[in-house]
Each structure stands twice: as structure tokens, then as C-alpha cells.
Amino acid sequence: MSRLYNFSAGPAMLPEAVLQRAQQEFMDWHGSGMNVMEMSHRGKEFLSIANQAEADLREVMAIPDNYKVLFLQGGASSQFAAIPMNLLRGKKTADYFNTGQWSKKAISEAKRYCDVNIVASSEDDGFNSVPDKSTWTLNPDAAYVHYTANETIGGVEFDDIPDVGDVPLVVDLSSTILSRPIDVSKFALIYGGAQKNIGPAGLAIVIVRDDLIGDTIEGTPTMFNYKVQADNDSMYNTPPTYALYIAGLVFQWLKELGGLTNMAKINQRKAEKLYAAIDHSDGFYTNPVNPKYRSWMNVTFTLGNADLDADFLAQAKQAGLVTLKGHRSVGGMRASIYNAMPEEGVDALITFMQDFAAKNQ
Ligand code: PMP
Description:
Blueprint: E1 5-6, H1 16-24, H2 44-61, E2 67-72, H3 75-87, E3 93-98, H4 101-110, E4 115-121, E5 145-148, E6 150-151, E7 156-157, E8 169-172, E9 189-193, E10 204-209, H5 226-231, H6 241-256, H7 259-279, E11 285-286, E12 298-303, H8 309-318, E13 321-322, E14 333-336, H9 343-360
Parallel strand pairs: 1-13, 3-4, 3-5, 5-8, 8-9
Antiparallel strand pairs: 2-10, 6-7, 9-10, 11-12, 12-14
4'-deoxy-4'-aminopyridoxal-5'-phosphate (PMP) is lined by residues 10, 75-77, 102, 148, 152, 172, 174-175, 193.
């Protein structure tokens, strides 16, 4: 059986080399006589896996020593609450950019714990852009500024790290983490769910500057307390061991591929050729996003004639190209092309789109 090109926004494709390695190690991890899922999280075998995963992530992202790396449960969505709980530190207000559906979710959760100042919003523009800097209303007294680097549903991303002065900067990097190098030292906190560029769903990663943790709001659940998690090496309770093991294999795969600089080149090339195919289709396909802010990871497009949507999806499936339907809230199509989507998968999609357009002009 051959594998499909799966354009899902997450859970998404994993690198084939990683799946093969996991398969080889499935019945007996390194002579332990066990699958990783069966190991005690406090045993030396699993601790070596967890320590290696953290060391490799630190190397791949060049994470400075004064940052803690936490491997947590509850997805990125739990962090929507944990961030205000840990980072308000006596303040009453936080700044949020509103650039799409995931920003909105982060904002509505934060409102349970503090006043939210919307720095800028692209909602009036249908979330097809990032608001121009001249419109930002940053509050210098905010506890932190939060933004969603890449809006997975709309396919919109910030083209640079926003300059917010001295206020701690927090980023939801769920759908763009590890796709290119990023200067971690510019951030107070980086977080993301694993199911796009890291590994299996169920794991979230938090990278937080160590001087910012330890002062939580009253009532913060122990599991949401970054200091407790950091002091316990993310093992206050039983961690998602198998997800962490697969994430570790993904980090090794990235290192073997030449790290994030090389990954960025491949990702940029993949995105550019797919957008070019859309833009050169004489309106058969359209992408509504301001080209400056087009996502490298989630390429959205609509067919000029929406009556053809069902045929497009059915024929794509027959060609081995699956999960191209856009998010239920926006419709149209979405091709998520994370790190593990091979360039050949993007090439196959482009060829299919061109053939489909030629047959249905
Ligand atoms: N933020 C972004 C940008 C996302 O794309 C997603 C998931 N699609 C989330 C947050 C929520 O992640 P999770 O399902 O892991 O809670």
C-alpha cells in the first residue's frame, strides 16, 4: 500500500523516515524488550529519550540557556488559559493581536482572567491580512503582548516578529514552529501544539524565559503552573511518553536534514510554487490573502466556480491527494504543507490543479 499526500492542517503528515524508525523500534526499543509506550516515565530508558528530545530541540531552535522547555498536555488550547495565569504577574491587562480564528480563541480565554486590549484587528478585512503597524495601539502597561504567528485557518502569517518594545512578547507558533529559524531571545514565551510540525497530537511545547515564571494567579491548577512543570522536568505527572518519543525522532530528522535553515528553503520553495500556480490560473483558483502575509504552511484557495468543489475533492482523492477541504468556518480549499509534506507532494498537487483547471475551464 502506498502512502497518500495528506494536506491536513493537523494532525498532519509525519516524515516517512520517522515513521519507519518508530516501526523498527516498535516491539523492542534499543534492546529494552519494550515498546516506548510500555516504559516507566521515570526509568532510565525513557529519561534518556526525554533528555535527548529536549537537547535536540534546544539545538535545532538555538534556544538560549535562560529558557525552560516544557513538554505539556492539553494542546495549544490549554495554553490560552495557562499564559494569563502565569504571565499576568500582578497586572490586570494584556495586549492581543486579532488576526483570525485562533487569535479569537486565545482572546476569549484570556478574557476570563484579565482585561484584553486588542492591539489591532484584521477582522474587518476578513482576516486576509495583518494590520499595518501604524494602526497598532500597544499598551506599555500590559503584562504581555500575544500574537498568532500563523493563522492556520485563514492562511495568514506575520512576515516578521512584531516590535512591541519592552513588553514581554508571547507567540502562538503552533502551525509554523520548526518551519524556519526564529530568534527565541526576542520572546518571553513561545508555545505550540505538536500535531503539525512536531509530532502526534496530545503534546504541547512551551518555551519560556525562566525569570518570568513562579508568580501565578490564585487558583491556578498545579498542572498549569509553569514553575511546577519546570521544577519537575515536565514530569509532575505522567507525560505523554509516546508523543514525546516521536517528537524526539522528528527533531533528529530535522538535524539530519540540515536544520531549520535548510527546512526554510524547502518550505519557501514549496509555498512559492503553489501560490504561483494559483495566481497563474487565470482566476480558476484564487487566494484572498494579502501576498505579503501569505502563509508558507497553510495555503488556502477557492475555485472560481464553487459548484466544482465536490468534483475537485473527489478527483484529488483519486490522485492520492487528500484532506484538501478548507476549514468548515471558511469553506474553499486548504493545502497544509508542513515540514513533512515532501516537495513531490506539492508538485503532484500543482499538476493535478492544472489538469483539473484545463478540463473544467
Ligand atoms: N493555535 C493554532 C494556530 C492552531 O492552528 C491550533 C490548532 N489547529 C491551536 C492553536 C489549537 O491547538 P490544539 O488543538 O492543540 O489545542
